[in-house]
Amino acid sequence: MRDASLEHLKTLIATPSPSGFEQPVAHLYRNYVSEFADKVITDVMGNVSACINPQAAMRIMYAGHMDEIGFIVHFIDEDGFLFFNTIGGTDVATEIGQRVWVHGKERVQGVIGRKAIQTLKADESKQTPTLKDLWIDIGATSREQAEAVVKIGSPVTLQTEFAALLGSNATARAFDNKAGLFIGGEIVRRLAEEGGLHPDVGLYALGTVQEEIGSRGAQTAAFNLAPHTALAVDMGVAMDYPLARPEEQGRLDLGKGPGISQGPNTNPIVLDILLKAALEESIPYQLQAYGDKSPTDARLLQTNRSGVATGLLSVPLRYMHTPSEVLCLNDVEATIDLVCGYCRRIRPDTDFTPW
Ligand SMILES: [Zn+2]
């Protein structure tokens, strides 16, 4: 990966964006794509769209959600401890003892506290804690002291940032889905610099908001844009670690390329074009099968207006929605190649009707 791109990915990860609080990351995405896109638009929901060939009648929508899971402060007690609920689905057991940033009137350090193990009753120590058992300690000794820097409604994010692991693997919080947003910026850059997009085909690479709480941004953006075809790129649950049972939901390994979803979430013509691009350009991929509705932006793209020819690509990710997600940067690169390959194969008259 070129150095400037890797630095951009690290910056996206270092910047907080819980659902509803995506503005700092939206700002970064806008700045990055404005160098390459013909047009960059931010809508009332906060979605950012980077477009190449805005005059074209054929429209491709790319969706990589900008938001991450997080927390929000909903009560401050008289001793200055903060109580909170989650933004999106978090794994509570992984949060105890984590350092957090509370994004209040200023950015404040905090830790997620719980009763000490020495004070847990026998039955308590066997149970998984719930959010009701946790609080955030910012070191304040009174509500007044806490309220000087934090307010009800302040968002909270985990502190863990990007770190390289062995090989091409890396760890961070919120690869889900800063990696998908990053891929959106890279496809705009690559298609602008290297060309290949048909002049009468328009690409709209969107950083969407609020995916983690129901793909609200993708829903409104797709309605506004009315694309003919759409690709959602999100993280896929890897099945290549100890105790993983691929029998339950299929195999997905780090380092073997993005998962390509097939089944009811995928338009068959989109699937054919994706597979053709992968084959012709020797891009690694893994087939995935999922029979229920997709828990990603793809679900709302597919059923937008009178229907959109949709595909879903999943970057394999270990330990999803924990402070230390792990992915392989080669899979991110392969996903960029595959999305570019798909876009270059769309023609103004491509018919997505499954006959
Ligand atoms: Zn996601």
How would you describe this structure to a colleague?
The chain has helices at residues 3-14, 23-34, 122-126, 143-147, 175-194, 216-225, 246-249, 268-280, 297-302, 329-345; strands at residues 39-42, 48-52, 58-65, 70-76, 82-87, 99-103, 107-113, 135-137, 155-158, 163-164, 169-172, 201-208, 229-237, 259-262, 286-289, 309-317, 325-328. The protein has 355 residues and is an alpha+beta fold. The chain folds into 2 domains: 3-68 and 173-345, Aminopeptidase (3-Layer(aba) Sandwich), CATH 3.40.630.10; 70-158, Elongation Factor Tu (Ef-tu), domain 3 (Beta Barrel), CATH 2.40.30. An 8-stranded mixed beta sheet has the order 1-2-12-3-13-16-14-15, with helices on both faces. A 6-stranded antiparallel beta sheet has the order 5-4-9-6-7-8. A hairpin with a 4-residue loop joins strand 10 and strand 11 (169-172). The longest helix is centred in the middle third of the chain and has 20 residues, at 175-194. The model has no long low-confidence stretch (mean pLDDT 95). The structure holds zinc ion. Zinc ion (ZN) is lined by residues 65, 176-177, 211, 234-235. The site of zinc ion has 6 residues, from helix 5 and strand 13.
